[in-house]
Amino acid sequence: MKISLGRLIREPLFHFLLLGAAIFFLAGRVRNSSIGAGEKIVVTQSEMESMVVGFSRTWMRPPTQEEMQGLVDDYVREEVLYREARAMGLDQDDVIVRRRMRQKFEFLAEDLATHRSPTDQELEGYLQQHLDRFREEPSFSFEHIFLSREKHGASTEAEAKALLAELDGKNKDAIDIEKRGDTFLLPSRFEKTSAPETARLFGENFATQLATIEPGEWAGPIESSYGLHLVRVDARVPGAAPPLANVRDSVLRDLLNDRRKQELDAQYSKLRARYTVVVEPPEVPKVAEAR
Amino acid sequence: MKSPIGLSNLLALLLLLFVAGPLVAQDTGEPDKASLEKAYPSKQPYSPYADRHFPDRVYWGDTHLHTSFSMDAGAFGCRLGPRDAYRFAKGQEITASSGQPVRLARPLDFLVVADHSDGFGFFPLLLSGDPKIMADPQGQRWNEMIKNGQGAAAAIDIITSFGKGAISKAIFPVPGTTAFQGAWEEVIKAAEEANNPGRFTAFIGFEWTSNTGGNNLHRNIIFRDNASKASLVEPYTTQKPLGSDNPRDLWKWMSGYEEKTGGHVLAIAHNGNLSNGRMFPLIESFSGKPIDREYAETRALRERLYEVTQIKGDGETHPFLSPNDEFANFERWDKGNLDLTVLKKPEMMEFEYARSALRNGLKLEQELGVNPYKFGMVGSTDAHTGLTAIDEDNFWGKTSSSEPSAGRATHPFIKTSNATIMGWEQTASGYAGVWATDNTREALFDAMQRKEVYATTGPRMIVRFFAGWDFAANDANTRNPAVIGYVKGVPMGGDLTQAPTGKTPTFLVAALKDPIGANLDRIQIIKGWLDAGGQTHEKIYDVVWSGDRKPDAKGKLPPVGDTVDVPNATYTNTIGATELIKVWIDPEFDPLQRAFYYVRVLEIPTPRWTAYDAKYFGIKMPPEVPMKLQERAYTSPIWYTPEK
């Protein structure tokens, strides 16, 4: 009599036997391991302290006497079952356990990488290598006077030019710009405002034009999203490579990040070298052959 | 009423008397008045910029964004985490979960990643086929559905099950578990890394998602503090026994955090429109009793802002509640509760919308002595994509399954046996504008707490709103209206009390269009008040508008016009105004009546996101789909409270 494997698998008697065998096997292991006998579980003071901390984090108060007893009981229960489970090898094929162990290992490796703080020299070197990432945007300090097209219509340009002529050559402090031009909801003066920021506030065109204006004198008019502006640039800081002091934190963060990655890879390839890996070719099912 | 400038002078003087005084006395005898005046001249300093401590910049942000750490976002296909969300908000180009490149037109100034605390980190476990989850029939079913490409259906099932409290206890991460703690640590780390004081603020936060029976009572929690304090706690959840679905318990948790750490947190509720009458109650749904003074006091303290507009509908008011408001019917979601398990009844609406809540707040203040609904207003996205992208021409949808695609508008967004919400009903909205002195966690948080904030449905128009007793028409013509605004009045979110005899409140209101957006149609002031008989009322005033339109005999202003070319999804700024400003005096003021005033700014009509979709994908939208809209801003109110 020929019995196919598929039919056997569906056979209830086969299930029964398999189950029986499994129970027998497990029971045997539990008995054999019998690590419980004479084993000691010590709940240390520091473990109890960490239970209190854990509880307080959730409840935002320390546990009562009864709750503390509950925590200790639960800890003991967990410890007993943890030891027994390990003795039975239940940690072997568990995806979560495996992943957690891998994670812990990686944390260790990462700790190694960041254990030693980089020296200033190393930071400086890293900054020079990745200047693009840390470059400071150009920025302006400027004052402006707004002229509304809605108020002045076709004569807005002419009015702007007339006002510019009036301002021309005048001492900086001789003009109260708060009293000139039209009502406007943005401030009259901007300090060290970056080019992208200026574009966000006034529109792209304004920022582009502003970059071409020589510091010192009133100039313009230049067009924003709102109307015309006379502007006086006080200071223009071109985009520049920053000194380390200005970007130290970001450089440190990026450098450590890189180091972590490198350390992980280095560790892994060292360990990987100890193993021979065989990837089995896929088994070709019979059906596929027949096709 | 003290303006910040007056206050700072006063402080300077006190400092001089208490600190400098004794020193001066020791060396040169008592200071005389003349020498004091020389040190602190009473007139305005020569430099107009000196001595200004008021906020002169508005910072833009989103207080409510979800990433893959939220269980439902993950189920809908979101694969972007908090770090990606912050990078995107800073203006970097990234790849969306749907595989498409995406970038903002302009970076934001701040962002709160607010993932659901319930099931924090649940989704990564579900997706990876965690054995514990696979051992549970429900978890296994969801895992299978997602693997078979039915992620959206799984997500809705997850949300519905959560609403019913029907998620198996065995598979749900709760505070204290590794999955939960790990997710919270990641959220904190991402915020700490992205936070760059002065340039970009990344707040630590989470969403407390009270949703019993599918009724939306959600609140976002925002920390003023950094990791050293925030990591001392774990986010509060709604699942018993560790959490609770009752806001009173959330407020207790907030107090607990503040007492324990010395830190500060605030809560912002959202989507009253999906609460089926429970968001702004007169009768508490949890006890069945009228709300008491303790509830009112705590809510007023803990919930100083309300998220009035977002993708799941705009919540300012409803045509049923405001039949005389011609702009009330705007992007409304009014079919039922969050999961559409219970349909809407008209009598629920009074307790769902911001304007009616502000009105009921006046009534409750009369009865209880405290106004529980004295909130300022912000807009935010509530996007579940990791992408805070709600510009009409760059709208990335509520969930990753509604990221741009030819069919997203015409597929149902939620469908139950009761009702259907179509994809096109998603609202591309909103952002929060914050008047702060600096772009830091502290400065922005403090501005939120004093309600100096406003909501927009997306555009970044600048809006100022001041109230005082002495604004004169000419104050609207000063070069920088904010100076006079702070000197003579209080800003949005503030209070007027004790009307001087014979005086009427005056308001200075101004708006400047979004620099890359549409022109403005009009500014309105919306007033609500409580009459002597205990009834509340509302009235809408057109205060200033573009062009030379004249109101008709009934006082109705003609529409601004319409330049929208729907097939091409364009418009022109040939109508409307770039800037509007006016001093307005309440013509019907009664010093004995409690009142609130807030501003609504309307843009000219522009193409809705559905028009941009139709053009890009070359599709025809069904006739019921709106293709244009008038974007708007709502400011926090200013309240008038009579003397006792």
Please write out the topology.
The complex is a heterodimer of chains A (291) and B (644).
Chain A: H1 5-10, H2 12-33, H3 45-59, H4 65-87, H5 95-115, H6 120-129, H7 131-134, E1 139-147, H8 149-152, H9 156-167, E2 189-194, H10 195-202, H11 204-210, E3 218-223, E4 228-237, H12 244-272, H13 286-290
Antiparallel strand pairs in A: 1-2, 1-4, 3-4
Chain B: H1 4-28, H2 33-39, E1 57-65, H3 71-75, H4 82-89, E2 94-95, E3 101-102, E4 110-113, H5 122-127, H6 131-134, H7 137-147, H8 151-163, H9 178-194, E5 201-203, E6 205-208, E7 219-223, H10 227-230, H11 247-261, E8 265-270, H12 293-302, E9 305-310, E10 313-314, H13 354-368, E11 376-379, E12 390-391, E13 394-395, E14 412-415, E15 420-422, E16 431-436, H14 441-449, E17 453-456, E18 462-468, H15 481-488, E19 490-491, E20 495-497, E21 506-512, E22 520-530, E23 536-545, E24 579-585, E25 595-603, E26 606-607, H16 609-617, E27 628-629, E28 632-635, E29 638-641
Helix pairs in contact in B: 4-9, 7-8
Percentage of residues in strands of chain B: 15-25%
Number of DSSP helical runs of chain B:
16
Estimate the mean pLDDT confidence of chain A.
81
One letter per element, helices H and strands E, the order of chain A comes to HHHHHHHEHHEHHEEHH
Please compute the radius of gyration of chain B using only Cα atoms: 25 Å
Side-by-side strand order of the widest sheet of chain A: 2-1-4-3
Detail the poorly predicted runs of chain A. Answer: 30-34
Ranges of chain B where pLDDT stays below 50 over 5 or more residues in a row are 1-29
Description of the molecule:
The complex is a heterodimer of chains A (291) and B (644). With 291 residues, chain A is of the alpha+beta class. Chain A contains 13 helices and 4 strands. In chain A, a hairpin with a 4-residue loop joins strand 3 and strand 4. Chain A is elongated, with a radius of gyration of 37 Å. Chain A starts with a helix and ends with a helix. Chain B is of the alpha+beta class and 644 residues long. In chain B, strands 1, 4, 5, 16, 17, 20, 22, 23, 25, 28 and 29 form an 11-stranded mixed β-sheet that branches. In chain B, strands 6, 7, 8, 9, 10 and 11 form a 6-stranded mixed β-sheet that branches. In chain B, strand 14 and strand 15 form a beta hairpin. Chain B is globular and about 75 Å long. At the A-B interface, helix 3, helix 5 and helix 10 of A face helix 11, helix 15 and strand 21 of B.
